[in-house]
Specification:
Elements lengths: L1 H21 L10 H12 L11 H19 L5 E2 L1 H15 L5 E3 H11 L3 E2 L19 E4 L7 E4 L2 E3 L10 E3 L3 E4 L8 E4 L17 E3 L5 E3 L18 E2 L5 E2 L2 E3 L5 H8 L16
Parallel strand pairs: 6-7
Antiparallel strand pairs: 1-3, 2-14, 4-5, 8-9, 10-11, 12-13
Helix pairs in contact: 2-3, 2-4, 4-5
């Protein structure tokens, strides 16, 4: 009797284990670019059912196209769509655009842009060649091997203060300063950026209160309402991407507003300036 009971329990356990092995878990969300862009459009177009009151179906079609172009523009080399990073972006977009809110603050948009800029990721490790930060795995950045050199490698970011030595892989001078050569027999150091009116470039930026203008000279950053092309043009740190492009404190939603019209017609990436400069400054 006990033997029969034992075998009966054992058989039940085997059956339970077998049925457990046959269970299929739900697939993770946003497994590919198509799923990701469908969820991107759904997340952003939520505002059409709230303060914006536009046609959500039209918005979704346009935003899907914008998302596809955005992802495709980031891919190349070893850079491919990353499911975990894509899912993180969708989570951030849902948090940002949900809730029938009349506006979204600039810092929230900037944080979302930083997350979504990583939906495409490369696999280059430390000291491996790269062309952009996206080539590098994890939080590594792409920086020149030497100051002014044409070869770049992935490296861990190291922040250097004004007056510190710089120029090595991963070394980045603080905002408003840049790495400058001190001659053939001295190591480069972080020096203050150019003042208003000084010549500037991607490798020789301006002081933190200025921006490098179209004419290649340092100009004061614009206040709210000033024309802009990038976030660095604005004291608020945010250039509203919808025409007319202006420095603002974020996006503002109301029926027929510029931001609502821009999101529905999807003329540009709606999360703001998702790009970030390569390291090595």
């Amino acid at each position: 009797m006990r033997t029969g009971l034992f075998f009966g329990v054992a058989a039940g356990l085997v059956s339970l284990l077998a049925s457990s092995c046959n269970l299929t878990s739900a697939s993770p969300p946003d497994q590919n670019e198509t799923e990701f862009c469908a969820d991107w459009a759904k997340a952003i177009c939520q505002v059409g059912s709230g303060q914006c009151t536009f046609d959500v179906t039209t918005c979704a079609a346009n935003q899907t196209n914008v998302c596809t172009a955005f992802v495709d523009s980031l891919q190349g080399g070893t850079r491919q769509y990353s499911q975990p990073n894509g899912a993180a972006c969708i989570g951030a977009l849902n948090d940002t655009y949900s809730g029938n809110q009349p506006s979204i603050a600039a810092q929230v948009l900037l944080n979302t842009a930083a997350i979504c800029s990583k939906v495409v990721a490369g696999n280059a490790g430390s000291d491996q060649p790269c062309t952009t930060d996206s080539d590098c795995t994890g939080n590594l950045i792409c920086t020149p091997t030497v100051l002014g050199g044409s070869n770049s490698v992935c490296a861990a970011a190291v922040s250097e203060a004004l007056g510190d030595f710089c120029g090595g892989p991963g070394q980045q001078c603080a905002a408003g300063s840049f790495c400058q050569s001190q001659g053939p027999k001295a190591a480069p150091i972080c020096v203050v950026g150019g003042p208003t009116g000084a010549t500037c470039s991607a490798t020789a930026p301006c002081v933190s209160s200025d921006t490098c203008g179209p004419d290649g000279t340092c100009q004061p950053q614009g206040t709210t309402g000033a024309a802009c092309t990038t976030n660095s043009d604005c004291t608020s740190g945010y250039c509203d991407p919808y025409p007319p492009m202006q420095c603002t404190n974020g996006l503002t939603f109301a029926r027929g507003s510029d931001d609502c019209n821009g999101i529905e017609s999807a003329g540009t990436v709606p999360i703001g300036d998702a790009s970030s400069p390569d390291g090595g400054g």
